[in-house]
Structures are given as C-alpha cells and as structure tokens.
Amino acid sequence: MPKPMTIDFVSDIACPWCVIGLGGLEQALTNAADAIDAELSFQPFELNPAMPAGGQNIVEHLGEKYGTTAAQSAENRKAIIGRAAQVGFTMNMTDDSRLYNTFDAHRLLHWAKSEGKQRALKKALFAANFTDNRDLGDAQILADVAQAAGLDRATALEVLASGRYADEVREAERLWQSRGISSVPAIIINGQYLISGGQPAEVFEQALRQIAEQS
Q1: DSSP string, 80-130
Q2: What is the C-alpha separation between 136 and 187, in angstroms, rounded?
Q3: Would you state the pLDDT for residue 11?
Q4: Global pTM?
Q5: Disulfide: which of 65, 85, 98, 186 matches 10 by Cβ 3.0-4.6 Å?
Q6: Among candidates 94, 104, 175, which has minimal Cα distance to 141?
Q7: How many CB atoms lie within 10 A of CB 139?
Q8: CB count, 10 Å around CB of 186?
Q9: The domain over range 3-214 is classified in CATH as 3.40.30.10
Q10: How many whole angstroms separate alpha carbon 142 and alpha carbon 125?
C-alpha cells in the first residue's frame, strides 16, 4: 500500500531550474506511485524581490548579479533548454527574455491552494514565463493565467488589487529561509529530508523510495 508523504516544493516562478525540478519530481512520483501517495504543496521563494515593474533583461541581470558574460549566459540557457525538453517543457529563453517581479504570482499561488488549483496554476505560470515570455508582474496577464488554470479571473484580479495574502507569503518566505533554504528548488520531504536542485527523475525516485521505506 502506498505510504502517505508530504512534499514542500520551495521555488520561484523566475527559476528555470525549478521547472526542471518539478518535471523530474512529477515523473518520479508517477514512477513510484506503487510506493508513495504524495501531497505536494508549493512554497514561495523570491530570487529577485527588488525587481521593479517591467522587469530586466536576463543577460543584463545575470551580468550584474553574477558577473556572467553574454556568451556564458547563452551557453547556460542552451543547457537549461535541453534539460527542460527532457521533462517535456518548452523553454523559449533568448537574449531578449526578461525577468519579472514574482511576488503577486506567489500571492495567487497561495490563494490557488485553497481552491485546489495550486499545481495547475504553478505549471501555467511556468509556461507563461518561460514558454510564452509574458510579463508576470502584470495583473491582467496574471489573471489570464489564473483563468487558464481553472480559477475565477475576477477573483484573481480582486486578490491582486487588494494585496490579499501578502502577509501570508512574506511569513512563508521567512519561515523557509529560517530553516536554511537559500537556493531553489528545494524539495522538503515529510518536513525532514531535503533534496536540492533540478534533479533527474531517477534521482528523485530513488530518494523518495528510500524515505518511504524509512518512514
């Protein structure tokens, strides 16, 4: 009989490795369905909390933040696009892609959990960001994405306009940081075990099966 398991997926919509990690994790959960009955929750983390409206060009941002050259940025993107394709995700990052503030998207994800649509919204946000290159700092675009994920568009706009769930998201961010999470994706199993990074499905599956056996 499959063992119940809680999985907290700490991530940011602006993180391409989080897309890869989620794809690998979902494949692993499918492969290990005989042993694991997982409850997956998405937890907020902002890579660029001070990102202004309109965002910033990805090459410019990575150069300022990490000292990455344009050539290095292009090479890294090539590797990421390849890894994303392995988990069935189309990533259209180019020299012209932009990074946007994701705080409002995290507020919608907090709301979506109560509606039973959190995973659907997370994946729709990833697609909007990395496949369609849409501005996820724009309330109208966020509402469109929420609707595509099966949520009520008018309610999404009300959540965004009101500032609802801002305190809850900030509190959750502080909680995970206080537990030592400083990079994403960070996958916490049963509140005890940490798996870091965009791991392949087989790595996730092996770890999940081992944890299930120990529990």
Answers
A1: HHHHHHHTT------TT-EE---HHHHHHHHHHHHTT-HHHHHHHHHIIII
A2: 24
A3: 98
A4: 0.97
A5: 186
A6: 104
A7: 15
A8: 22
A9: yes
A10: 8
Provide the token pair at 88. 């069935």
Residue 168 CB coordination number (10 Å): 14
C-alpha–C-alpha distance, residues 185 and 197, integer Å: 5
Q: How many angstroms separate the Cα of 43 from the Cα of each of 58, 81, 88, 169?
A: 24, 24, 23, 8
How many angstroms separate the CA atoms of 127 and 91, rounded?
8
pLDDT at 215: 80
Rounded Cα–Cα distance for residues 213 and 75 (Å): 40
Length of the chain: 215
d(CA 60, CA 205) in angstroms, rounded, equals 37
d(CA 125, CA 133): 10
- Annotated domain spans of the chain: 3-214
* Of the candidates 43, 42, 61, the residue with the CA atom closest to the CA atom of residue 51: 61
3-state secondary structure 9-38: EEECCCCHHHHHHHHHHHHHHHHCCCCEEE
